[in-house]
């Protein structure tokens, strides 16, 4: 209730008031009836019947979390032991110990908003008094400096403008998590720099996040910085991959994420800024920048941000996170080292068998029709395609089993030189049957708009323990205060 | 009024380290060859080992578990304590 390093209140009774408040004016005559330290927010001459201390910069009000005036507080040995807000006669009588106090006043009268929570003042007060919890180096810009240009000039952006991370904005962002600003979230490659909650918040502000997105950004940063995901390799590779973030759970709706129409595209703030914030952390904290440790030959537009929600409500399949051991109530992020999405078109299939044939034929070409087992894929099944499978009673396991069965490939078509293509598997495998994907190498997700017989596939990077493993991470929501 | 922003970086200052001088000859040098586990890197390193041995160097071979991750600390320390020079094969 009281902020750290708060100025100590005097022992005894303390009341916060302002002249502008009608309830304060109503109780003012009572304040000369008992010993009380009066702290006034707006006028040193109020109340006129007792001496008052003017809380001119609202430091006392802010530090002691005064939300309403009047607030009556009893202080013992420098510590608050009880408080009441507004006028509640029974509370005032109990706290003052005066049985008949205000008997001629109404039983109850609500107070007014404290000036310290005035929306016009609150951010400035938070920065002035709460700013000392922020440990980041301050960058002072001159009056004539353009903040947006200054961020570009310092190399802090991904090529798009960022929201300037002021103290007030970062403090507001930190309201989105119960974790302490100085807590270490992860060690970020490639420079292996420990990143604090505060630094994640700074980059989340820059990305354009709302505070309620912050737990999702933190979870995704934790997930990509695991040894399994291997963001160092994902960043350093010449292949065009970056972290693809797939979000599951009821929280995706709470923060307004999009798993429906254009889920993989533009237009949704949560989708776009969560993914962008993760990339900015890797860039700014980890030091992973294109042309330096990032050696991508082409890259892909998703390396700015590639983040979407699974469309769980209307899905005939169990969700991605449920298939990876979480419950429907868990909020999770699954990170996958992926390239850009590629469309799978089949507008004629009316049976699951036909559609699985089309999916398999497309999936076979992933990265190269002759390369097998080296790469995983995310298969984003659109709702109209999902309905075709559901109508024939195919669930997630059935669909994946049918796809894997169709992707057992003859070695003779895969060996070096086959089909006039130099790349391929060694000659000695020509009489073997080889699977395109390892057994858990297809991650099935349901997303997309309600119209369109389309799906999408997202190719991965070197898989397994030598490359990158998909990682699913639980999102720790803000605790109730 | 001055505008104040927060630094989004890791706030590290990277120390500048001078390169060691080139050795005048390979005599008495122990050269570590680090294979990063990319295909055909060994072809390149086999040839280097042959040339370096002819030039009078003692060659030791090392291998990263995977090209996708930095060399483990133990491996880096092993090379640092056993070798005077190191060559890392990067290419496919």
Sheet-strand content of chain A, in percent, reads: 15-25%
Structural class of chain A: alpha+beta
Radius of gyration of chain B: 19 Å
| Biggest sheet architecture of chain A | 7 strands, mixed
> Segments of chain B where pLDDT lies below 50 for 5+ residues?
none
Q: Quaternary arrangement of the chains shown? A: heterodimer
**Number of helical stretches of at least 4 residues of chain B:** 2
Helix fraction of chain A, binned, reads: 25-40%
Task: Give the overall silhouette of chain B.
Answer: elongated
**Spans of at least 5 consecutive residues with low confidence of chain A:** none
Query: How many angstroms does the end-to-end distance of chain A come to?
Result: 10 Å
Radius of gyration of chain A: 30 Å
Largest interface: A-B, 44 and 19 residues
Query: In percent, how helical is the residue content of chain B?
Result: 25-40%
Global outline of chain A: elongated
**Averaged pLDDT of chain A, please?**
95
How many structural domains does the protein architecture of chain A include?
2
Number of strands of chain A: 21
Strand pairing plus helix content of chain B: what structural class? alpha/beta
Question: What are the secondary-structure elements of chain B, in order, as H or E?
Answer: EEHEHE
Fraction of residues in β-strands of chain B: 15-25%
């Amino acid at each position: 209730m009281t902020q750290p390093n708060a100025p100590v209140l005097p022992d005894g009774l303390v009341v916060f008031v302002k002249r502008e408040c009608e309830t304060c004016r109503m109780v003012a005559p009572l304040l000369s009836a008992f010993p009380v330290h009066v702290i006034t927010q707006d006028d040193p001459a109020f109340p006129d019947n007792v001496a008052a201390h003017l809380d001119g910069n609202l430091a006392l009000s802010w530090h002691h979390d005064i939300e309403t005036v009047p607030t009556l507080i009893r202080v013992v040995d420098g510590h608050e032991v009880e408080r009441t807000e507004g006028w509640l006669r029974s509370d005032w009588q109990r706290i003052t110990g005066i049985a008949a106090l205000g008997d001629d006043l109404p039983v109850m009268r609500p107070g007014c908003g404290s000036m310290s929570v005035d929306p016009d003042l609150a951010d400035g007060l938070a920065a002035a008094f709460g700013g000392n919890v922020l440990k980041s180096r301050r960058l002072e810009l001159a009056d004539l400096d353009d903040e947006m240009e200054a961020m570009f000039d310092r190399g802090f952006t991904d090529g798009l403008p960022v929201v300037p991370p002021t103290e007030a904005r970062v403090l507001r962002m930190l309201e989105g998590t119960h974790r302490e600003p100085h807590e270490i979230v992860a060690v970020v490659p490639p420079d292996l720099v420990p990143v604090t909650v505060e630094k994640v918040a700074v980059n989340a502000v820059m990305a354009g996040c709302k505070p309620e997105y912050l737990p999702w950004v933190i979870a995704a940063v934790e997930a990509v910085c695991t040894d399994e995901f291997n963001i160092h390799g994902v960043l350093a590779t010449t292949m065009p991959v970056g972290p693809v973030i797939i979000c599951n759970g009821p929280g995706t709706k709470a923060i307004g994420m999009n798993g429906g129409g254009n889920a993989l595209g533009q237009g949704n703030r949560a989708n776009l800024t969560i993914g962008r914030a993760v990339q900015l952390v890797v860039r700014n904290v980890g030091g992973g920048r294109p042309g330096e440790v990032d050696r991508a030959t082409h890259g892909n537009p998703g390396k700015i941000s590639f983040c979407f929600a699974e469309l769980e409500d209307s899905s005939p399949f169990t969700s991605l996170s449920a298939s990876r051991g979480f419950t429907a109530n868990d909020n999770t992020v699954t990170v996958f080292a992926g390239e850009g999405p590629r469309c799978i078109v089949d507008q004629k299939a009316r049976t699951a068998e036909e559609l699985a044939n089309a999916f398999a034929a497309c999936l076979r070409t992933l990265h190269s029709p002759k390369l097998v087992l080296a790469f995983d894929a995310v298969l984003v099944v659109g709702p109209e395609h999902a309905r075709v499978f559901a109508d024939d009673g195919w669930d997630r396991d059935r669909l994946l089993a049918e796809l894997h069965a169709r992707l057992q490939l003859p070695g003779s078509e895969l060996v070096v030189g086959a089909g006039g293509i130099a790349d391929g598997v060694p000659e000695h495998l020509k009489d073997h049957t080889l699977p395109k994907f390892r057994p858990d190498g297809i991650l099935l997700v349901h997303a997309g708009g309600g119209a369109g017989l389309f799906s999408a596939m997202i190719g991965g990077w070197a898989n397994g323990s030598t490359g990158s493993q998909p990682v699913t991470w639980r999102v720790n929501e803000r605790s109730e205060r | 009024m001055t505008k104040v922003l927060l630094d989004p970086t890791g706030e590290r200052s990277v120390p500048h380290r001078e390169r060691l001088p080139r050795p005048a000859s390979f005599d008495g040098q122990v050269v570590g060859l680090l294979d990063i586990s990319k295909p055909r890197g060994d072809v390149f390193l086999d040839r280097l080992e042959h040339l370096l041995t002819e030039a009078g160097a003692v060659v030791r071979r090392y291998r990263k578990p995977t090209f996708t991750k930095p060399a483990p600390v133990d491996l880096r320390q092993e090379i640092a304590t056993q070798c005077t020079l190191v060559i890392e094969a990067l290419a496919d």
